[in-house]
Amino acid sequence: MKTRHDAKSGAQEESPYTAKNLDGAITHLEIVVAVDDNIAVFGRRYWLDRVKRIASTPQIVPAQAQRLRHLLDQIKDA
Length: 78
Prior knowledge:
The protein is mostly helical and 78 residues long. The protein has helices at 22-35, 44-55, 62-77; strands spanning 3-5, 12-14. The protein has a two-stranded antiparallel ribbon. Strand 1 (3-5) and strand 2 (12-14) form a beta hairpin. Helix 1 packs antiparallel against helix 2 (44-55) and helix 2 runs antiparallel to helix 3.
């Protein structure tokens, strides 16, 4: 199972997402990024970290990966 590094504690965390709930998480981020064009509410770093954490989910399918790449592009261009 893929994990991510927690910068604050130094611990490795498992992705909280599964193949079953990943689409909902991606949809949520797509809505938030579309509404907040300049990613001002939490800042660009926060949203980049969220997308990368979702992307570390095991069993991600190509369509989900493509949606996440699109989100990364939107955030980087904001």
